[in-house]
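OP here, attaching both records as promised.
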Amino acid sequence: MKRKIILLPALLFFMMPAGQVLSEENIESAVKFFNAEEYDESVDILEEITEKEPSNTKAWVLLGNSYLKLEKNKKAIKSYNNAIRIDAKNEWAYLGLGHAYSAMREHSNAIAAYKHAIEINPRNAEAHYGLGISYDRTVSLTYAFEQYKILKTLDKRLADKLYQQLRGWK
């Protein structure tokens, strides 16, 4: 019985189309570059993947994250929107979109993106944090403190960080 369990993943691996295996290997390489803060290299790999596989949501989100780290916010927004066009329920694309809009000080757009991420996953602490910061930036302190209260139940560290931001302690 144990042999079947071991053989099944191996068979599935070999039955996968060759391009899908290569794409996953390339995404893993891009993630390694991203984690090593070598964002240009990550972008190069991910742009190639998205060109060959325009429906690869994971690659689009990772490309957006890489652009965001390079402070190429408009390119990040385009990448996240491509991911959302493919998968309208991708919370990570909405989260990244919120970060990109926030970096551009387009807080009303950031608020909308964070709200989408929260609709998809109400327990996404990072989205609640971003939403609280964006509300703070638009001087909607009542709404910002609502996010703080929610965060206290999800992630105390982020709740404390938001509270300090709201109190002006940064």
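Record two, same layout:
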Amino acid sequence: MAHRWKNTLTHRDVTPKAAFMNRRQVMAGLAAGVGLAGVGGAAHAQDALVPNSYEDITQYNNYYEFGTGKDDPAANAHRLTTAPWTVKIDGLVDAPGDYAFGDIMNAMTIEERIYRFRCVEAWSMVIPWNGFELADLLQMVGVQSGAKYVAFETALRPDEMPGVRYPVLDWPYVEGLRLDEAMHPLTIMATGIYGKDIPNQNGAPMRLVVPWKYGFKSIKSIVRITLTDREPPTSWNKANAGEYGFYSNVNPEVSHPRWSQATERPVGGGLFAKRKPTLMFNGYEQEVASLYEGMDLKANF
């Protein structure tokens, strides 16, 4: 089993459920202060987070396979069939095969992880995930010595995903990590939020969560995991390599070509909420900086 990570955030730090489920609250509402505790000694300022209405919760999400409009995923994601669900694990592993989601869940230890979440669009939140360490799954199937990277693939179901009819990205959605990133105890496969199964529009039944990277790295609705000796392609990097690098670590010193990453807007704070400084590696610098020792993080963005 992988080394257990000690969580330092508590439920006091969690973005209110309604605000998490509806990112539209970034653009509306009044403010209520919620303190954010730091990880690795870093402290956040007071966050202004406001619960949203049920209508807000169900009408705003990003999942391009169900459409690019912010209310498209909530309107369309119910079409996704999540049971039965199978994940193909192949490549440089000792026990390749098609693994039923239920069998994976029975073999893993499910726990709660309260993590900061930072979108490349410069908004942020705190989310209580339920899931298991990816390292435990990889150890279960046996990682071979030649493996250096882990590639992931999202379901591609045109009959259930109306968004894939349009060439917004090169479908299916794919992502990847270095093996040491994948094996890090902070990296989890999330299967729940707020103690409930992840809604379809949020990546049911299983998604990746890498809290020190921008949110698009946390690929949703995974159907394939491949161990490989070569850096795998990733969807947003293929779409625009000048804006989205392979690593995509949260770095306030490296701006997106169209906006600064130095600050972020906490979701739920309203239109006039005070922005706060973005922390290096999203506040997990103490835990993960050693993974990139000696690397130029501006060149390897």
